[in-house]
Amino acid sequence: MEDCYNRVELCGQILTAPELSHTNHGELFYRFILSVPRLSGQSDDLPVLVRQNLLPDCLQEGDTVTLTGQLRSFNNRSGQGRRLILSVFARSLSITPGARPTNRIYLCGAVCKPPVLRSTPLGREICDVLLAVNRRCGRSDYLPVITWGLLARQAAELETGDSFCAEGRVQSRVYLKVADGTALQRTAYEVSIMHMACREDFPAE
After folding, report:
1. What is the 3-state secondary structure (H, E, C) of 136-158?
2. Distance between CA atoms of 41 and 38, rounded to whole angstroms?
3. Mean pLDDT of 106-116
4. Is 115 helix (H, G, I), strand (E, B) or coil?
5. How far apart are alpha carbons 67 and 102 in whole angstroms?
6. Any bridge partners for residue 35, and if so which?
7. What is the CA radius of gyration of the chain?
8. Does pLDDT of 198 surpass 60?
9. Residue partners of 95: CB distance under 8 A and separation at least 6
10. Which of 51, 72, 81, 202 has the highest CB neighbour number within 10 Å of its CB?
């Protein structure tokens, strides 16, 4: 699919100091958790990957930063934890004291499995969509997307291969997983859609 788009805009507070994640083709990549407050008072605590050359020398825990990038997926083959690991891959990053919190993502890709329409325990409709978004290098990111209410019913009518373009936010969700009789706290990441959109409405890359 040629008409793909993946752009994340975040502004929040660094929750954990950057630490080395991995090396790729001689480049060092660092990882930290960025906390972005919601209007409800809760926060989305999101994993961020960034090249060493984009990290300000003085960057530390508690700083407010603004970044743009993409939401990336990685297939975990270790056999431990979730198979699909998501993180925000930063393409620009700067320290911005006093800046207002921002959590916005623009996506355009292809539906890669049949959407699942369900209801929450409180009776609210929700639809799960798995979206494939191509990168320029030929690989694809597989991103879990959720829609609510009327949008959920609209998304449920999509078929595999259909184009899907929308604006939303990247959210974290804590849940309990029981393994061998022990409840373990886990965090899931997904895109919560605010409204459907057209590719032409998105910011220029």
Report:
1. CCCCEEEEEEEEEHHHHHHHHCC
2. 5
3. 96
4. coil
5. 10
6. 13, 45
7. 17
8. yes
9. 56, 58, 59, 63, 64, 65
10. 72
Query: Comparing C-alpha atoms, which of 48, 136, 135, 137 is closest to residue 91?
Result: 48
In this prediction, residue 1 has a pLDDT band, given cuts at 50, 70 and 90, of: very low
The residue assigned the tokens 């006093």 is: 98
**Angstrom distance (rounded) from CA 205 to CA 190:** 22
For 178, half-sphere exposure in the C-beta direction (CA atoms, 13 angstrom radius) is: 1
Question: Over the stretch 143-187, which tens digit does the pLDDT of each residue have?
Answer: 999 999 999 999 999 999 999 999 999 999 988 887 777 888 888
State pLDDT tens for residues 186-197. Answer: 889 999 999 988
125: nearest Cα among 103, 147, 109: 147
Beta-carbon contacts of residue 27 (< 8 Å; ≥ 6 apart): 51, 52, 53
Cβ contacts of 163 within 8 Å, gap of 6 or more: 1, 3, 108, 109, 110, 111
Q: What share of the chain is helix, strand, coil (3-state, %, to 5)?
A: 5, 60, 30
Cα separation, 193 vs 171, whole angstroms: 10
Token pair recorded at residue 205: 């890359």
Paired tokens of 45: 């605590």
